[in-house]
Amino acid sequence: MRMSEVIIEELGVGADRVAVVSGPNLAMEIARQEPTASVVACEDAAVAERVAALCNNPYFRPYTNTDVVGVEIAGIVKNVIALAVGICDGQRLGDNSKASVITRGLAETTRLATVLGGRLETFSGLAGLGDLVATCASPLSRNRTAGRLLGDGLSADEVTAELTQTAEGMKSGSAVVDLARRHGVEMPISEAVVAVLDGSLAVDRIATLLLARDLKPEGK
Questions:
Q1: Does a structural domain hold residue 217?
Q2: Average pLDDT for residues 147-159, to the nearest whole number?
Q3: Is residue 78 annotated as a catalytic residue, yes or no?
Q4: 78, 98, 171, 220: which is the annotated catalytic residue?
């Protein structure tokens, strides 16, 4: 279940009472009051606008939409893709490899979200591409850092012990892959990352699997 679904079920409130805030929002930069844009999503557009107005200030600019599914799935899966990019760092792979993983990672995230009811345009915006780029590119990203440690040869348990903060993708990766399999969605990058995390794939073999799909047109 997505977090909004958990809140709705546990609190017994309607979907119009739950808003999701997501985007390229690295916490340390927001704490330093560096200019940041974000997305507030709610099924009720008026509620999204009200929350956005409450969040708005000179350094934090929220936009609104009603695609809660797309925004949540983007925010979940980008952590797994950032692990993959970090693994590329740890394996001393270059920018071509990392750019390819980011781009194809966005494609597999979009496939999953649209099957679940998310909207395609969400993934060219702040919650999709914006958050993915920030999480995959920044040295402040916990998930990229965790991936780099995995790429250096540490086990998942050793990475957890090394980090002082939570890398969400290490916990959510298996749920993402399970959801994708149940809906018949191919997510080869996420699957490869989860295989490294559970020890079924040696990290030095991941480079050959990150882009492992049959030859086909780019948009499919």
A1: no
A2: 95
A3: yes
A4: 78
